[in-house]
């Protein structure tokens, strides 16, 4: 279609007649551009270093350059420089060919930094080309010769016809045109050569450019114009098609409007004719539009065609057809969107606004109380001075105002299509449009009055003095003044002597995969001298009433805040990047209310003037590390590291678990799947490797340099175990200590997050100071169905992890046991919903769940619960979760929409409440400082000195700091809570137990009794053993050495030796390093007596003849006033009795105190023979003898008495002999006789617990 149009255009133009030149049918390459401003010696101040000639192929087929040459001659010379074009080259249809003239080498050789890229370089000084092209007068010829390119020769004027049918004119310097394809003579050619008329002089900074590459007339002057050099080589791709775009316009009926359309020239387009069909508005159907600076056209030759006219029409939106036809007969069409408005009522700006009250209802409970402009909904016309211009509108202010301080003199003009052309600050403008309220009254308590522009006329393009700004003082914007304090100054210029920021500069956008933020130039501030605003208890007064039966506290929204926008008027280059506490002196800007949607909680916005000098800003706060812990302290930090995701993994690790019966979603899918108790793909973002490395580096800086390497760090919003490991490894590497931290999180194998966004919780544990005993997940799988819901939902999106650990206290010393809990509770989003209870109930039930768990721990457990609680230190009126969690200050049920529950746990302490009020913040939202991150602990830790500090490195800093790997600032959006806990000295306790019965009993005076004690180290560190001593009648020995390890024992022996009768007491005292332990000792001393023979001996001896008796006198002597009854007994020692030997003693006797008593022991031995008889012994006697012998024999065997055995055998033998032979009058053996020998008997004397023995050795003869 394009080729057909081109051919048709050539055909038609070949017959068209022009006023001064005949159009030629072009069938060969043509010269389209000549640049002569270059030089081989000096090109200072020129666009390019070297000259060039540009050729173009206007035909439909490629043209080989074999046989073509380029030739140049100066103004009037007859001498030509000739150079053959590359024979193997060709010019495709519609393409260019660029020839550059430059030395082959040297300082001024071709330089791509200073020259266009050519298709061919003609080496000046060789091959017949010896000079630069002239920028004033000269002639260039394109020649063709099937053989060798030959330099042209002068023939005189008007001699012959060129190959393409034109005739040269001029002086005798014209060459023979027989080989000339195209010829251009330019400059002062009165005595030179040209085609019909010479083209203009070029000049050193311009080029001679063919007006239409595809058209060659019979006049150099008609074909060429001087313009900016635009060299095109064979790679050049221009716009090949003609196009037209109508520009929309708005105007007021009966007033003038300029219709414009922008034309895109095709490759062959050099001129175009544009017409508009205005028949629908009473105009011509073929109304021309102009690009010559007339008829409303702003700039001639810029390809924007215009026509200024006056149209009378009802209010309507019209579509005006426009058509363009170019010099090649190519056409295009488009439309101009035309919005017609009716003339508005002329109203001054202050009358449009009406009076505004600076004191609105408090609290604001319903939107019906919001005031709007009296002209809302009315089409008006007004005028004013432009005080500021944004991208979608501008501000107007009445130059004088009405003098009423309650009436705003300014207004925002919303221009949805485009800012009026040429509009500038200081212009006086008349605008027409409808007055609207924005934001809508139903979503904002302080909406702006704005004019929706339909038409604007700049009535004074000069720069008028801007209206003097209203000076705002601290008294005009106070913490108690309410939301409406600044509404009387809406849309007006204001100035503030000094502002202090209460936030860092915010961001307009985040590319999360690359983790880069783009600033929006906005930050919050208060008038300097106003205290920093903090979030306060209760429901924000802008929120809708959720439950009318409740009477929660009301938060006043901190109306002293102001949002400052440094880019609205100034663009991104004017953005001011700062942190909280920065001071901006002498601030001037326009006060805007269009940004006051209640969901942003912004009462007013100050749009900073374009003239503000940001170099005058005094910088704000810098990163604030926490104090270094003392040697007797350990630290636990709670750090929300904000959506810390890793790059895509070979095995995807972005999983989350959904309890059975709950809807799960895969990735960003909105299709629910009822879980059977399974994992799903989370929405975790796969960040780039570079982004991940930057975040790891920043986090390492934060942990090392700002938190001072805490002993335990609870992590919130870490993706999983893999990411936690990477964090630990980065810190360990940067710290130069391998293994310094060990990481623990959900491993996607045995533990999972239950959060569809893919964030979880975890720990960093410093291995040099902490022993990890166990990490356990709790709360997983719990679900609930909220009121009004029909299906269960997950209760704990990030089930809490519990670290049971021991804080090291030194070699041989028991660790100090702690239980650290990390939790990340439900966000605040949705808690103010008027349609769903889900968020409020989930937050409360989560708090109850963990509180019950803490209560289940053994008494005395040292609990540290850290995390992002997503709750303030007080109730926000919707929930009271921290009160439930700590069982402290639980509000009455009528003061909270979702009340807390008391009594679930022994009261805990929120360490944040121990801080001064002006130090309680870990997060900044809408310019309000607030706490979301807490450390909740058991009271024993507080009693021992627990306290905390916040490391301020994130919440107060510009979001663009996220992009900087060299600073820890903006590692995340939360500051870090760091708790300091006293590491108590080890308990040096010990225990004493006995190894024998606990009483020494009664012990005779002077005697001893020993009792064993065991000393056990029951403490937490080795005992330095110092001494073991006893008082009274007790003595001590031990094997304890100098040190006793934890859990070890040693023995202590205590000996009781009474010195007096009666109960005797003493105290055993064991002294060791760090303490002592004692045991009471009790024993009874008993007065005694002694027993000896009459000679005072014990033992004693005596002798007795068989058949006789002997006595032994024993003397009993009272000692220490002993008196009492003494019982006596006599037994053979070891029960070895002598046959027939008896021992008789008195049964008892009484020994008086201080007296002696002699008692007789009688020992009787049986005779060994009996008198004989005249005849043999009777049978019974014989049997008795044999029986006695048997008894003695058995006794000897049983008692192991060899003598008795022998006697027994003799008796048996004798009895047998007597029976055989009989006896006469001789003696007979006594079977019961006492044999000769030595025997031992013991006489035992006992009195109560006293017992003494006198041993008697008796010799029987």
UniProtKB/TrEMBL annotation:
Residues 1-21 form the signal peptide. Residues 17-188 form the LTD domain. The lineage of its organism: Bacteria, Pseudomonadati, Acidobacteriota, Terriglobia, Terriglobales. NCBIfam families: choice_anch_D. It is found in: Cell projection, Cilium; Cytoplasm. GO terms for cellular component: cytoplasm. This is Endonuclease/exonuclease/phosphatase. PANTHER family: ENDONUCLEASE/EXONUCLEASE/PHOSPHATASE FAMILY PROTEIN (AFU_ORTHOLOGUE AFUA_3G09210), ENDONUCLEASE_EXONUCLEASE_PHOSPHATASE FAMILY PROTEIN (AFU_ORTHOLOGUE AFUA_3G09210). Its main location: other. GO terms for molecular function: endonuclease activity; exonuclease activity. Keywords: Cell projection, Cilium, Cytoplasm, Endonuclease, Exonuclease, Hydrolase, Membrane, Nuclease, Signal, Transmembrane, Transmembrane helix. The chain crosses the membrane at residues 1177-1196, 1203-1221. It holds the Pfam family Exo_endo_phos. Gene3D superfamilies: Endonuclease/exonuclease/phosphatase, Immunoglobulins. InterPro entries: Endo/exonu/phosph_ase_sf (IPR036691), Endo/exonuclease/phosphatase (IPR005135), HYDIN_VesB_CFA65-like_Ig (IPR053879), Ig-like_fold (IPR013783), Lamin_tail_dom (IPR001322), Lamin_tail_dom_sf (IPR036415).
